[in-house]
Design brief:
Shape: extended
Number of strands: 0
Helix content: over 70%
Distance between the termini: 50 Å
Transmembrane segments: 6-25, 37-58, 64-83, 88-106
Strand content: under 5%
Largest sheet: none
Mean pLDDT: 92
Number of helices: 5
Order of helices and strands: HHHHH
Structural class: mainly alpha
Low-confidence stretches: none
Keywords: Membrane, Transmembrane, Transmembrane helix
Protein name: Branched-subunit amino acid transport protein
Length: 107
């Protein structure tokens, strides 16, 4: 019973937080400093997800070697993105490098 109440409590709190933006809508305004800070949230969250998976793909310590396919593909992706500024091209080339590295170089 305690587990059920805990899950229901978390669901209610999550629903209340997410629906507050829709309920208050235009009446809720943030100061410019907060709006600026909130604009960095997506980049920060994405970085927090991708960097650990790239540096330590097997969950242990950092694997900073040429055998780390994720790291090699990420470095290539950074280079392609810096040169072309085209997201789809960056994704396509980095995926090709990742699979090539995984299947040919590391294997």
């Amino acid at each position: 019973m305690n587990d059920f109440l805990l899950i229901m409590g978390m669901a209610v709190i999550t629903y209340a937080i997410r629906s507050a933006v829709f309920v208050f809508g235009e009446r809720l305004s943030f100061p410019p400093l907060v709006r600026t800070a909130l604009s960095f949230v997506p980049v920060t969250v994405l970085t927090a997800i991708i960097v650990p998976m790239t540096i330590a793909p097997h969950g242990g310590g950092a694997e900073l070697t040429w055998r780390n396919s994720q790291l090699v593909a990420a470095i290539v992706a950074l280079g392609v993105c810096a040169l072309t500024r085209k997201p789809l091209l960056t994704i396509a080339i980095s995926l090709a490098v990742f699979f090539f590295w995984q299947l040919v170089v590391v294997a």
